[in-house]
Design goal:
This protein has 85 residues and is mainly alpha-helical. The chain contains three helices and no strands.
């Protein structure tokens, strides 16, 4: 019976930390989505205008933005365990 009393504050603390992780995770998903859109947009502008900055091309930025969008979609569909509890 005493172990339940001892674990209760630890469980509350773990839930509090998991809540903070959920808020941070949601913010990171938002930033990832916005940045993938911006990178694809800038890559399209660079591709159509024909600008090349060093080794960076429009096609490379578009490909990188698409890969970032796929990764964000994966983490949206299969979130970590702290979001499921």
């Amino acid at each position: 019976m005493t172990s339940g009393c001892i674990l209760s504050p630890l469980t509350d603390f773990a839930r509090l930390i998991a809540g903070y992780f959920q808020e941070i995770w949601g913010f990171l998903i938002f930033i990832g989505t916005a940045s993938s859109f911006i990178v694809i947009l800038i890559g399209a502008v660079m591709l159509f205008v024909g600008v090349r900055v060093g080794k960076t091309t429009g096609r490379g930025l578009i490909l990188g933005g698409i890969i970032l969008a796929i990764i964000i979609a994966y983490f949206t569909l299969y979130p970590p365990d702290f979001l499921l509890s």
